[in-house]
Amino acid sequence: MAGRFRRTLATVRSTGAVPRWLLYIGGATVLVFTLVALAAPLIAPYDFDQYRSDGTRFPKLGHPSGDHPFGTTVQSLDVLSRVIWGARTALEVVVLAVVFSLIIGVALGLISGFVGGWLDRVLVLLMDALFAFPYLLLAIVLSFLLSDAIGSGVVTTALAITVVYVPQYFRVVRGSTMSARELPYVEAARVIGAKPRTIIVRYLLANVVQSVPVVATLNAGDAILTLAGLGFLGYGIQPTEAAEWGYDLQRAVSDANAGIWWTALYPGLAITVLVVALTILGEGLNEVLNPTLRRRRAFAFLLPGRSASTQAPVLAAKEPR
After folding, report:
1. N or C: where does the chain have the smaller number of CB atoms within 10 Å of the terminal CB?
2. Model's pTM, two decimal places?
């Protein structure tokens, strides 16, 4: 474990300056949002739906002040508390959606790419049909159907977003599996009588999921926008269940027309910063995990049997071990 960690650090240090700093900045920003989400009950001044304290109602559309640093909404809710609790809601939905879509998409991609035949054709047709739909429209339809069946909430919204991203994991893993199944080590496993399940789990899985973390990071940023879109259109999490940035933006549209800026600025800024952080984190991870994109350092060496004064140094690329 320690050796693998050192190799990972060496790989990160071997990348170019720009991708490395993208990785650092994106990772640090996402970490801050994650800590804020996890510590929301401790750092939020009030509950997400609290509009009074000590028997006194908060001011309606109050300007940012010492008691309410981000101001209050038309419903007398504290904007700072809504932003903090909204980070917790976004973390819950995005983690569930990415985990669900990753498990389903990777499993189906492995099976489809390894088995082939009619099963592969059926799965490809199904995933292409899902991929052809506009992702927000598909999420709205699924959220509407699931809310009637199991009710609205974090899990329902996460399931609606899950179906949107399953085809992406399926395509990536299926293509890698179809290439890897013809390699000699897979053929050797077949010759010695390994079962298909053993080949998939032991020999293919670890070799076809190398690009999945990058896709998951980019999908997480896109899922934030999808969640905000659902909340803005009224198909996401209900306001009585949790704070959600998209819903807050929808409520702030009329405020902006009246010159009230704080109810829309802070939720919109939170969405923008988190999406940008996840995007640049994904770009940094792609540079680190993809050896074809990673820049390698050059060093000089001398050919054997020649002195340093009689030959020019030869440059070679060194890959960290």
Report:
1. N
2. 0.81
